[in-house]
Design brief:
The chain is an alpha/beta fold and 292 residues long. Helices cover 39% and strands 14% of the residues. The chain is built from 10 helices and 6 strands. Strands 1, 2, 3, 4, 5 and 6 form a 6-stranded mixed β-sheet that branches. A hairpin with a 4-residue loop joins strand 3 and strand 4.
Length: 292
C-alpha cells in the first residue's frame, strides 16, 4: 500500500543528513553570483519523482498535472508549473544515486546476478535517434536485438538489491561482474551468459566468492553440492524482479529527451522497487544456515 507520508519521511531524513555534507564538497564558482531558491526543497522533489513510479500512471506529465497538482497540493503548497519542475529534475541526479545506495539490502551470503535490456527507442528508429548518440548501443538478448543500455543487478534471496550498474547494450554481461561483487561474499548464481572459468577463478581468488553459472547445452555437467544445485534452480527470482522493474516501476520507455533524465528515471524506478513492501523472495531457512 503506497503511503506518501512514509515515503517523504524516509527521503527527508536522508536529505537532512546528506545535503549538509554535500554542500561542503561542492566547488564554488566565482562567476555565479545568484542562485535562485526553489519553492520545493530537495526531499519534496525527490518524493514526487519516486512516487510516480509507485503509482499507476504511465506518463509523468499526466501524473504531475492530474494527480500531484489536483490531489497533493496541500502536501506540497509550493508546487511550480510542470515546465519549471522539469527544469529541476537534473539537480536530483547525485542525491538519488546516493539515496539508492542507502536503500540497498544487506548481503546474506546468497546472491543472484543478471542483466536486463533497457531500450531507449524502437528498432526502426535507431538510425534517426540522436538523444543517446555515443552513449547507447545495439545489444542482443535471448529474445531479439535492441538499442539502449543494460541494467545489471545483484539481489539476495529476500529480493533486496545489493548492487546495480548500467552499461551500453553491447557490453558483455561478464565485464562488470568484478565491480558489482567487490563488496559481497558467499555464493553468487547466474545464467548461461556468465559462463567463464576464468571469471569464476578470479572471483574466488580476489573476493572469496563462489560463482555458479548455469552450463550451456553443449557443456558437460559438473558435480555440485545438493545445496548449490537447489539454489541455482531458484535463479528465476531475479527475472521476476526485472519484470517488476519494467512493468511496475516503469524504468523503460522511449520518450527520453535527455541522458540525465534517463538516469533519474532509472534511479527512481529502482528506489521505488526498494520501497515496495512485498518483494519476490525465497524461503531458505530449511536449506542453508544463515551466513551472518
Amino acid at each position: 500500500m503506497f503511503s506518501l507520508d512514509v515515503l517523504f519521511c524516509h527521503v527527508d531524513d536522508f536529505c537532512q543528513a546528506f545535503e549538509a555534507k554535500w554542500h561542503k564538497q561542492l566547488l564554488n564558482h566565482e562567476g555565479i553570483k545568484r542562485i535562485r531558491t526553489k519553492s520545493l526543497c530537495l526531499s519534496e522533489i525527490m518524493t514526487i519523482l519516486i512516487a510516480f513510479h509507485q503509482n499507476h500512471y504511465r506518463n509523468f506529465k499526466h501524473f504531475y498535472l492530474d494527480h500531484v497538482k489536483q490531489h497533493w497540493h496541500s502536501a506540497f503548497p509550493g508546487l511550480p508549473s510542470y515546465q519549471r519542475f522539469i527544469e529541476w529534475i537534473p539537480s536530483t541526479l547525485i542525491p538519488l544515486c546516493v539515496y539508492l545506495k542507502h536503500c540497498f539490502g544487506n548481503c546474506t551470503g546468497i546472491g543472484f546476478i543478471d542483466s536486463t535490456s533497457v531500450k531507449v527507442c524502437h528498432n526502426r528508429r535507431i538510425s534517426r535517434h540522436k538523444v543517446f548518440e555515443g552513449l547507447a548501443a545495439r545489444g542482443k538478448t535471448s529474445v531479439d536485438w535492441f538499442f539502449g543500455f543494460k541494467l545489471h543487478l545483484v539481489v539476495n534471496e529476500f529480493g533486496q538489491l545489493l548492487n546495480v550498474t548500467i552499461t551500453p547494450g553491447n557490453v558483455d554481461d561478464r565485464q562488470p561482474v568484478p565491480d558489482l561483487l567487490s563488496n559481497l561474499f558467499g555464493k553468487i548464481f547466474a545464467d548461461r551468459g556468465y559462463v567463464s572459468q576464468k571469471l569464476a577463478a578470479q572471483l574466488l581468488q580476489d573476493f572469496g566468492i563462489e560463482f555458479f553459472a548455469k552450463p550451456r547445452r553443449n557443456m558437460k555437467n559438473k558435480l555440485m553440492r545438493l545445496h548449490d544445485k537447489l539454489l541455482s534452480r531458484k535463479r528465476s527470482i531475479i527475472e521476476t524482479i526485472n519484470d517488476q522493474l519494467k512493468n511496475i516501476s516503469q524504468i523503460e520507455h522511449s520518450r527520453h529527451r535527455s541522458p540525465v533524465n534517463f538516469c533519474v528515471n532509472v534511479l527512481c524506478g529502482l528506489i521505488a522497487y526498494c520501497h515496495q513492501p512485498k518483494k519476490p523472495s525465497l524461503q531458505l531457512e530449511w536449506l542453508l544456515p544463515s551466513y551472518v
